[in-house]
Amino acid sequence: MKTKATLLLSLLLLMLAGQTTTAQQQRYTVSGYVKDKQNGESLVGISIGKSGTTIGTVTNQYGFYSLTLPAGEHEIQFSYMGYAPYKATVKLTKNTTIDVSMEATSSQLNVVTVNGQKQERTVNTLNTSINKLDIQQMKKMPTFMGEVDVLRAIQTLPGVNTVGEGSSGFNVRGGNSDENLILLDEAPVYNSTHMLGFFSVFNPDAVKSLNLIKGGFPAEYGGRTSSVLDIRMKDGNNQNLTLNGGIGNIFSRLSVEAPIVKDKGSFIVAGRRSYIDLLMKPFVKGDMKDTKLNFYDLTAKANYKFDKNNSLFVSGYFGRDVFGFGKDVNMNWGNSTATVRWNHVFTNRLFLNLTTYYSKYDYSLKFTNDSKKKPGEVEQAYDWTSNIINYGLKPSFTYYINSSNSLHFGVQGIYYTFKPGTGTSTNDGDVHVKKITDQHALESAVYIDHEYKPSKKFGIQYGGRLSAYQFVGTGNAYMYADTTPGIRKRLVDIKQYGSNELIKGYYYFEPRISARYAFSDEHAVKVAYSRTTQFMHQLSNTASPTPLDIWTPSTNNIKPMVADQYTAGYFYNAPNDAYELSAEVFYKTTDNQVDYIDNANLQLNPLIEADLLPSQGRAYGLELYAKKDIGKTTGWVSYTLSRTERKTPGISMNEWFLNRYDRTHNLNLVLTHTFTKRTSLSANWVFASGTPGTFADNRLEFQGWDIPYNSTEKRNNYRLPAYHRLDLSMTLKGKQLKRWKGEWVFSLYNVYGRRNAYTIYFKQNEDDPTKREATRLSIIGSIIPGITYNFKF
């Protein structure tokens, strides 16, 4: 590890030495923030360049830029599609700060081209496998029940899929849903959906932008092996009071934005609440009259700029799902996050973002026979709770050496507390408590990467991440004897550890590198390699993870996952930026994925590690993407051809078998046509191969009964039928008044009523109980209409 680090440092110093300016050429730096003039929101990815040259930079994810130029007078131009270009003439005799407010244009049909310095196009970036969407793009998509949804938007991108309706998560390049790092203002979110997967927990009125990273991960991201979904919340309007909201047939939402001090501070508060249970209340009687079926969430953020060098941001999220069937069955789950961020500019070239956060995910499940108890019967009840809590600290720095070099480095630390479950059963007044021992862990990392662009054609970003993980007490460590692979392991010893006493430690070096070569302004190829590690795991032996699945850390028996991914791609941007094309291939291997013995027991099992197996994974494929941003007809089409497999000792005859998330073909077509300024129609069609499943391939007749069985003992030996669906959405804008703007959104989900199979199960034939028949289970099998009225004041 020391050798690798030494070589990396030597290479870095060598490249920086070649960029050192001479004493005869004095250079100064112009820096600052770029914001939206109308609402004060920071703008990410704005291109800043010296007119007439290829020297330039872009704003970072906090809206900050830094550009170093020779002493003298320069014309600096700021440009981005959808905003009027801004020019500033500056005479550099010292380091200078220029904060810029850019004005949004009413039309995006004209593309701004500034002497080779255009907006940050895909063909110009170093990173591979990154898709960026903003809320305006998401609003153009067909909606489910008339509601814009973040997760449904990213599922139309190449390499992303789900197992179908009702799945609480998404899968990227064959990975499990727990292999996605989902960040909301830099705080991790563990359950990203409401209503068992039908809506995301992210209120669209509070979302500014999102980045989905599938490969070529920058060194600052770690802890997951498949993807990073980085969601940034709005800062709030620091110019005027603004209300946004919507009233739909499932839920309503409202957000409020306003200045705290104009031009210096602002806030946003956004809330949603569904009301299915309220609408159904008049129709539900008897034992079910107390049924609860709703979700709600609250998102808030405030910021304040103390001076040109210091800004503070505070944000939080709280959301919960409540399912209650009468008085006898009640369950709820939800996320809570809080983030405090401090941006500090040390010099015109050195920028700090210091983040500290809190995140919690918890759930509870309660059963009782109270309402159905007959005279003389005893009271019975059961209560199960579980949660995961983490605290994090992330100081991250960006040092802008010159227009060709920048360094990104930082330190990260996360402290985890896992409460796998506490079950309390009551039987006629007798209370019995079964508690799984709490678990604790500390994850830390130090990282650095260097972005080097020696010419217009070539660029490289390389670096590394040193990750450390300690599984610590207070807690127990279980020792198991080696057994035949695929069989439950035998417990031989239990050792107790005191508070923060080290039980097991893991240490990894994660190299990262991405490179780009441009043949011209329109054509470029990119390659990338990254190693990632993951120290926590979601335990689920169902086809789709549920909100009640268990999270567990890596222990002395569960090793961290380690993934190596190679990516190569071709990228094209049309000369007028009307459309872009890309084609990427990837190959990923993963060690120490969690698998299960047959009939594994995952619920309130203190010896759950005995039922787990280490597994190897591999995934490879081709991703095609075409996107059109200009004109009356816009949209994108994505296609993925891929294969995802696993190999687990003792399972499936020790051979490679299909991962349960494997889809050979995945096609998405998203189109929006604008008829007039007030009318538009959107369509989304998706086609995907069915997911694999394990089914009997033979049968045994015994005393006149058919007994099905799997003769090959291979997992996932069949596929479900192909999945396809068409959605339509029409937006009708009302008269756009000076202060009040409204629109109606009418949607049809699953237009031709396709009964897509969520799973297939076997049951006895009603006419002949000795026979068993396959039955298709569909979560949605009909057309679902929706209507929403959106407004802005």
The backbone outline, from C-alpha atoms, is: globular
Chain-averaged pLDDT: 85
Instruction: Report the C-alpha radius of gyration, rounded.
Output: 28 Å
What proportion of the residues form beta strands (DSSP E)?
Answer: over 45%
Q: What is the overall number of helices?
A: 4
Structural class of the secondary structure composition? mainly beta
**Full CATH superfamily name of the largest domain:** TonB-dependent receptor, beta-barrel domain
Helical content (DSSP H or I, runs of 4+): under 10%
CATH class of the largest domain reads: Mainly Beta
Total domain units: 2
Oligomer: single chain
How many β strands by DSSP?
A: 51
End-to-end separation: 57 Å
Query: At CATH's second level, what is the architecture of the largest domain?
Result: Beta Barrel
Please, could you describe this protein's structure?
With 793 residues, the protein is mainly beta. The chain folds into two domains: 77 residues, Sandwich (Immunoglobulin-like); 663 residues, Maltoporin, Chain A (Beta Barrel). Helices cover 4% and strands 57% of the residues. About 4% of the residues have low confidence. One of its GO terms (cellular component) is cell outer membrane. It comes from Chitinophaga eiseniae. Its main location: membrane. Keywords: Cell outer membrane, Membrane, Receptor, Signal, Transmembrane, Transmembrane beta strand, Transport.
